[in-house]
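call fold(seq) -> tokens
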Amino acid sequence: MSRIIHLLALLLLFETIPMKAQYAVFSGMQDVISSGMARTGLTISEPLNFINNPSRISDIQHSILAVQSRPYSYVSGLYSVGASALYKSNPREGFGIKWQSEGSRELNENIVGICYGRKIGKSSGMALGLNYFIRNLPESKNEGTIIPEISVHSKLNNSLSAAALVINPIPIQIKKMAPLPTIIRLGIGYQLSSKLNFQLEVHKTSLLPVSGNVGLEYHPVKNISIRSGCTTRGQISFGIGYQYRKSMFIDSSLEYFQVIGPVMGLGINYLIL
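ret:
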């Protein structure tokens, strides 16, 4: 019975949609900062934003180590955890690695990825990445595949930025499993003031309706960030971040989904200065 409950919860995590479009681990491929802003943030320049948009590697100044977790309150044993690291080989380019796992001990999906990002011109960047996806199901052979991704961003002027991310541009089929989805995210960011940033994104996943996502990030004082967001699918979210000295960032988020209720997130990012 517990296996059935965990499987249903894992599927509902990616919302009540056709099963062949659902792979929950893809919904977790954002950091906790993004979670507090309704999964937006393609254009923001937070230190860990290479998880949301690897092309931002070109703008990040330091190497990073990070971990994050999202336990699901209403389903015992269901989790979302991840870890990542960024190495800056020089100011214009760098390499990132990431690991993300969603599910339970018996039913889970995992992604391990590597990406390379570099600066293009004075105010743009791009990145290419490869992710290994594997789904672990009880009493069946685990199967996996390689998933490519590409991302770009550009600062259009002092206030306006644009970015795009495509995961699995050519749909991949795994034996005995539904086709892996193609995910497209397009976004713009507008710096309304020195303290307030506005994010507007459009998310499209294969076989799903388009989702419009809006996020805000406010800095009332230097070391504190307050975040909020909502989507056209009825999801709302809130978040808060704290910078401890120069090298540590602690972020938390609270998301509310219509199907599975509230989900909390915690992330710790350490800059290697």
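The first strand starts at residue 63 and ends at 69.
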